Amino acid sequence: MIKAYAVHEPKGKLSAFEYDPGSLNAHEVEIDVQYCGICHSDLSMIDNDWGFSQYPLVAGHEVVGTIAEVGSAVKHFKPGQSVGLGWHAGYCHECAPCHSGDHNLCSNAQATIVGHHGGFADKVRAAADSVVTIPDGVDLESAGPLFCGGITVFNPLVQFDIKPTDKVAVIGIGGLGHMALQFLNAWGCEVTAFTSSESKQQAALEMGAHHTLNSRDTDAIAAAAGSFDLVISTVNVKLDWNLYLGTLKPGGRLHFVGATLEPLDINVFGLIGGQRSISGSPVGSPGTIAEMLQFSRLHNIKPVIELFKFDDINAAIERLRSGKAHYRIVLER
């Protein structure tokens, strides 16, 4: 039996829950969970904000642990290896994205916490090819958020061939944004942080930003017109997107990784006149996650975390819900 923490109704409290996972599939691994980050997507699933949560729901998709058992067909893992598991726990292997290595774009991928029990548990199972080895030298305690938040902001750097000479701005210096600043600085970019919090301006500079701009100061944003090759939005609230679009250079890109639920109100002439683009992206493929982990090891990039014991999971959830987390929350065994 796997011992977990589950929620049984939208916005409910998590309580002890056990389930029998059955026999281990030939292509699966079972992971002993040591740490598990809590992502805002976990909160959205707990609250059924997206409308497809299934209860009882065992959330948790920023898993760090060790291999406990491997299926009969698994050859590249062995018990005791340190590994991580992110948003996806399996792929179809039949679609064009899977065949091209873009597993994260598989429309039939198995999400770790959608129709599948996640990492708020003592163990979790997943297809072996969705699990990534954690290199020696990566801090296990803080590694969990890299498997969702970290790869979400790292993936666009790879997908859009961001250059070390590019000027990049990040909107929102929170759970995603604080990791984006670290990655972009180590990538070699000139980095600007948009933040509405004066208290975060100094923190943003310490985490890799070269400049800060007050996102509440429309005049300051307007004065930055034509400045950036890329602007990454990590927030989940509606902003004046046309104002930010104007900060792009010709050919620049406004890229969304924060899941704002309101439609984008965009003046198309702001796109056409400067040949600018708007885009979005999910988490990365297992191959890109492995690259990100090596990059993080080389540049000593770590999420800033607050630790809670698994037994204090409801307090940890409330801390995230309050908006006061600094900057990611991780459960420890």
Description of the structure:
The chain is α/β, with parallel strands linked by helices. 26% of the residues lie in helices and 28% in strands. The protein contains 11 helices and 17 strands. Strands 3, 4, 5, 8, 9, 16 and 17 form a 7-stranded mixed beta sheet that branches. The chain has a 6-stranded parallel beta sheet with strand order 12-11-10-13-14-15. It has a two-stranded antiparallel sheet with strand order 1-2. The radius of gyration is 20 Å and the shape is globular.
What is the CATH H-level superfamily of the largest domain? Medium-chain alcohol dehydrogenases, catalytic domain
Task: Give the oligomeric state of the chains in this entry, treating copies of one chain as homo and distinct chains as hetero.
Answer: single chain
Q: What is the string of helix and strand elements?
A: EEEHEEEHEEEHHEHEHEHEHEHEHEHE
Q: What separation lies between the terminal Cα atoms?
A: 18 Å
What is the radius of gyration computed over CA atoms, rounded to a whole number of angstroms? 20 Å
Shape: globular
How much strand content do the residues show?
A: 25-35%
List keywords for this structure.
333 residues, alpha/beta, Quinone Oxidoreductase, Chain A, domain 1, Rossmann fold, 2 domains, seven-stranded mixed sheet, globular
